[in-house]
Amino acid sequence: IYDIAFKPDGTQLLVATGNKIIVYDPTDGTLVQTLRAHKDTVYCLGYSKDGKRFASGSADKCVIIWTDKLTGILKYTHNESIQCLAYNPVSPQLASCAVNDFGLWAPEQKSVNKHKISNRITCCSWTSDGQYLALGLFSGVISIRSKLGEEKIKIERPGGSLSPVWSLKWNHNIQFAPFKHFKRSIDAPNVVIRGVNQFYRTRGFRGQAIIGLDSSPKKLDDTNDVLTVCDWGQTLSFYHLNGKQIGKDAKLDYDPCAVQYYDQGKYLVVGGSNKKTCLYSKEGYFLGVISDSSSGWVWCIACKPDSNVVVVGHQDGTITCHLVTFQTVHGLYRDCYAFRQNLTNVVVQRLNSDIKHIDLDEDDGSKLTIKCNDLVKRISVYKDKLAVQLSDRIVIYQHETKDGESKYVPVNKILKKFECNLLVVCSENIILCQESKLSCFSMDGEKQRDWSLEANIRYIKVIGGPSGREGMLLGLKNGQVLQIFVDNPFPIEMLKIKSSIRCLDLSMNRTKLAIICDNSTCHVYDIESKELLFEEVNANSVAWNTQNEDMLCYSGKGHLGIKAAGFPSQQRRMNGFVVGYCGSRIFCLHVHAMRAVDVPQSAPMYQYLDRQMYEEAYQIACLGVTESDWHNLSQKALEDLNFNVAKKAFTRIRNLRYLELVQSIEDRQKRGENKTDLFMGDIHAYRSEFAEAAKYYKKAGHSQKAVDMYTDLRMFELAKEYVETTDPSERKQLMAKQANWAKNTNEPREAAKMYLAAGENLKALDIIGENGWTDMLMDVARKLDKADRESLTKCAYYLKQLQQYAYCAEVFNKMGDRKAHILLQVEIKNWDEAFALVEKHPEFKDDVYVPYAQWLAENDKFEEAQKAFHKAGRISDALHVLEQLTENAVNECRFNDAGYYYWMLSMQCLDIAAERTPKKVEMLKKFKKYQKLAEIYYVYHSIQRYTDEPFTSHLPEALFNIARFLLHCISGSTAPRGVSKVPFSATLYALAKQSRSLGAYKLSRFAYDKLHTLKLPMRFQDLIDLGSVTIRSKPYHDSEDLQPMCYRCSTTNPLLNAQGSSCINCHQPFVYSFSSFEVLPLVEFTLEDGISDEEACRLIDSSSKPPRSDEWKDNDRDAQSLQMDVVEEDPFTARLLTFEGGGDYVPVVVNRVVLRSLSRGDVFIRRWAAPLRFQYFKNLMPEVAVAMCDSCFQMFHADDYELMVLQKQCCPFCRKVSDAHED
Ligand SMILES: [Zn+2]
Ligand SMILES: [Zn+2]
User: Fold this and answer.
1) Alpha carbon distance 939, 965 (integer Å)
2) What does DSSP say about strands 205-206 and 319-325: parallel, antiparallel, or unpaired?
3) How distant, in Å, are the alpha carbons of 84, 121, 900 from that of 124?
4) Please, which pLDDT band fits residue 1038 given cuts at 50, 70 and 90?
5) Which of 207, 498, 1101, 1126 has the maximum number of C-beta atoms within 10 A of its C-beta?
6) Three-state SS for 1034?
7) Cα 74 from chain centroid?
8) How many angstroms does the Cα of residue 1031 sit away from the middle of ligand 1?
């Protein structure tokens, strides 16, 4: 086998043998393929770092490049046979070396760059960064080349051509994380690979020692490239990249043929003429032999990437595969644990109880590492001493702490190569054990004593003692357990069992001995009596607790057993061997790792507890149990009146409250009190187990204590049970306390219940109501007697507040309070229910209907409401309600609303007049009255606003007109009754002011004079005084412009008219615009007898006369003359003067001819419903546009009306929503 190579991912193993390349599956040695492309022996193989290509070189001078799918893709040649080749680790560059030249080739190159070299190249290796290539020459020279092939360093070695360099390798100090755990999973079966000629089942290497705890992070200085060189001068040397040698040559006693780094460069594996494969530290210290076969020289070695498999190719064609594992070498003294690392280091660590999980791979600062530079074979620790046996000496270290730094200082060396099975260090001695012989040396290596025993020694344990006189416990193969003192030549037999001893341990106080025999049984003996105390099977190792005499643990068969005294052991799953048991912590060695396992001692503690062995349970608890375990222990002890343990336990968990209890009980005991039941009662009371406590108190004859306890707890009902029935006063007292507590408590529900129980319903209801407990409120209300009106009223009050109206109504019903019930329905606007109630009890109808109408009015449903009343045949009700509403509005000075309501009222009266003949006259009278009032209040609203608010939207003329209109309404002969509510003074005041400013001095003077006769609010008085003084400087007449003209007779009327709103001459009533209150050019006319309204309307509509406006348009150049013509021609005009002076009002009466002559656009008809007749008006000045509301029939200047409708969306007087506007 000339060469072997792994694919970087470890999935292929290439083997060069003969002129073939054989590919194996390394997992089971299956042959994958045989590649036959070379015509001569294949010497070398090399896989590229990325695993996509590999190259082979052969004696046939060819280099062949293959893909990982095993197809050859390229071939080039050298002049001589190819000796070695290597892929650059960072690029696809391939170095191929022949006898007298080497080539550098990369896929992008067309040709191979070849460099001549004077001597045969035997080996080559790239640095990890791919910058340099080291060539080992047959002449013993090492040439370090750049990646371009230039020679950078040439190392001439002293051996010269007598020491051909045969193998070299750069330490590829791999930067990626070390593989920490693979050594722990090497339970896999050894791998078998079929070689070319034969196969070997390899057992792998199990050197004597060891541990695989070797993955400390790389130090920075380690990353420097180190070149390992083997030559046939039988040396192993190391060089830096700069050519300087590191250390000295290590002598080999064979010709090395192959060198490889193993396990991330921590070790070297070298094979050669000695037919062995040896393991060295990376510094070159020999560590052990991996393979030793009869298959001839070792020619090549390959380490499977990322594993601990080493494959070796031998001269005779055999390939062996080895699994490398290291034994554990370690020593433990209490929690001081020393172990071997990387085979040559010793690490000492405190398995400190503060660290929960010890991960020996992590450097947490609790470790001390000692570099021994040699294979560590044995380690022993005792107190501050550490003994390490190396290949040729024993070094004794002493632990020292200097300047806060802890370290081990070598104090003695015994330069002697010992063969021994066991090494033990004591304070002043080193004891070596070889089979049945035990030798004691001084620290200087002077032999002091030998013991020859009857059988091989299987186990030694130093059990302590004075310095220099320590005792040791020995377990022999023949079953003997001996005790040997370092200074005593005579062993003492302690026991002898039938089978050989594997492990043993002595209890803390040295009264008991645990022995594990070869039958995996743990025997525990009393040392004094030699009596076998108990046995446990399935035990491979055992350890006594170092803090508790009765506890031990043992391991075996995947379980850990913890045993306290003679109780059954507690089992739990655990792999590994127990090696120590400290408190609640068990040290366990599993595979190659030491673990500290925390095992709560709860179970054994409870075993003692169950037997009332409190002291023992406490001892166990001290080793480490949970808080709740402590709690249980303390309570159990307390319960059993074991105050000593209870006190200790309470102290431990810092429960001061219970400590006080224990203290007080103990004090009472001292004073001679001895009623256990009483103590028990106190204990249970402390635990809030009141029922128990009360029972104990009663048993002790102290029922009063139970009563007091329950009273303190406010558990009055329970307290009552313990009150002696013979004493009624006590019972009362209890009730008093209860009530008192209830008052101050923050538990209102309880308090309420108590008040109820005490018959204090009102107090209870207040609490219940304020907390909003509807259900409770209702329960109470239902239970109450209906005579208890006060309580029921309270219930109802709260229910209403809580909006539980149905319940509230129920309460009112129970009380028989119909009015309250109805008012409730009204308040919650449950009108249907309210109406239904009023139906039965009509005496409350005002209580319902008025608010109902009010509500409807507020919600703009006034008409609906009225309609509803009418529908229900409640016309008089509707009227009544409306009257009430109107009165309210007046009383509240909402004159605008009052006007509106009066208008509504008038219309209702008209409706009634139409339907109910008996009331017709009365209703028509009312109609007129209400119409008038509607107008008065409507108008007064403006005056009120003017006097109440500093600004008014009305023009001075309008206000003047309004005031005058109002004055005429309320002072004239037609003034209705009931307007006394309108402040006359305000109207006069407005009139006085406006009159003066407009030049109506006479009127103003009249108003001021009138005002002086009235009692006025103070705020007006000064203004009026001032006004009446200044008015005197004005002329005693009114401006003629202001005086209204009668459109019928053309008489100019005075501003103040004794007749009210009609012409002083013809008595024709003025028609006012209901916005500006100017007189409109309208004259009312009536129909001749015999003409019905229908006919009149028809006649007007069928008027043959074309509209006047057209004529205006045609003849506007001479309007004046045209009008004159019209006046003369118009038959209506002719009838205007049909009045008699000084007499009563005689309306203009028209016949059919006149009607026919009228223009439809000039006529306004108030189409009153029956029994009223229509009212007809003719516009005498058609150029003045007039509009009439078709609902209330009020007249307006068309422009004003449109504006108001636009602003209010309805008629200002009757509030009818304007259809016109909507259009
Ligand atoms: Zn007149
Ligand atoms: Zn109207």
Assistant:
1) 8
2) parallel
3) 7, 8, 119
4) confident
5) 207
6) coil
7) 63
8) 30
Counting ligands in written order, the one closest to the CA of 1059 is: 1
What is the three-class DSSP state of 498?
coil
CA pair distance 1149, 1127, nearest whole angstrom: 18
What's the CA-to-centroid distance between 1059 and ligand 1, angstroms? 12
Domains and their CATH numbers in the chain:
1-116 (2.130.10.10), 328-351+371-400 (no CATH), 954-1059 (no CATH)
Question: Bigger pLDDT: 185 or 645?
Answer: 645
Which position has the higher pLDDT, 1139 or 1178?
A: 1178
Q: What is the pTM of this model?
A: 0.49
Closest ligand to the CA of 1079 = 1
- In DSSP notation, 235-247 reads EEEEEETTSPEEE
Looking from the CA of 653 toward its CB, the CA atoms found within 13 Å total 23
Residues whose beta carbons lie less than 5 angstroms from ion ligand 1: 1046, 1048-1049, 1051, 1063, 1065-1066, 1068
Q: How far is the CA of 1195 from the centre of ligand 2 (A)?
A: 8
128, 122 contact by CB (below 8 A): no
Cα(1069) to centroid of ligand 2, in Å? 20
Predicted local confidence at residue 975, as pLDDT: 52
Rounded CA gap, 1045 and 967, in Å?
18
Instruction: Tell me the per-residue pLDDT of 481-537, one tens digit each, with 9 for 90 and over.
Output: 998 998 888 888 888 888 888 888 888 888 889 998 888 889 999 888 888 888 888
pLDDT over 60 at 187, yes or no: no
Mean pLDDT throughout 113-136? 89
> Which of 174, 14, 159, 175 is CA-nearest to residue 85?
14
Indicate if the pLDDT at residue 57 is higher than 90: yes
CA-to-CA separations, 803 to 782, 796, 798, 799, 874, in angstroms, rounded: 18, 10, 8, 6, 31
Give the pLDDT of residue 84: 93
| Smallest-distance ligand from the CA of 1063 | 1
**Residue holding tokens 């009032």?**
933
The pairing of beta strand 1148-1150 with beta strand 1082-1087: parallel
321 contacts 311 by C-beta, under 8 angstroms: yes
Name the CA radius of gyration of the chain, rounded.
Answer: 63
639, 635, 642: which is closest to 614 by C-alpha? 642
**Backbone phi, then psi, for 249, in 5-degree steps?**
-65, 140
Query: Which of the ligands is closest to the CA of residue 1061?
Result: 1
**pLDDT score recorded for residue 746:** 67
- Asked whether the predicted pLDDT for residue 63 surpasses 90, the reply is yes
Residue type at 808?
C
Q: What DSSP state is assigned to residue 955?
A: -
| Positive or negative: CA dihedral 1134, 1139, 1145, 1146 | negative
Q: In Å, what is the CA distance from 792 to each residue of 28, 753, 867, 878?
A: 96, 17, 39, 35
Instruction: Specify whether the CB–CB gap between 172 and 305 falls below 8 A.
Output: no
Task: Measure 1045 CA to ligand 1 centroid, in angstroms.
Answer: 8
Report how far residue 1209's alpha carbon sits from residue 196's, in angstroms, rounded to the nearest whole number. Answer: 113
Check whether 1177 has a pLDDT greater than 90: yes
Alpha-carbon distance values, 881 to 846, 878, 894, 908 (Å): 7, 5, 17, 12
**42 vs 83: CA distance, rounded Å:** 9
CB atoms within 10 A of CB 1117: 7
